[in-house]
Design a protein that fits this description.
80 residues; mainly alpha
Amino acid sequence: MTIAAIVGICIVLLILGFLLPRLSIWPQRGVDRTLGVAQRAGGKAPGPLGRLFSKGFGTSRRAADKSAATGREGRRKFPA
């Protein structure tokens, strides 16, 4: 379920980055902030469990940022 939600968020950010490059920064920051809070909360678990929990949210965060950046880059390369 979580994986499907992250994939959906990445697709939405990719489309927003392509269609509205300047306005896509705000949803990207919101997703980044939300996943950052979850990553910090997961990191508070003891020992290797904390690293395991925070790693998943960090990877999701990186994927969402890359997706939005790819959409903006695709728009930049697209002929006007």
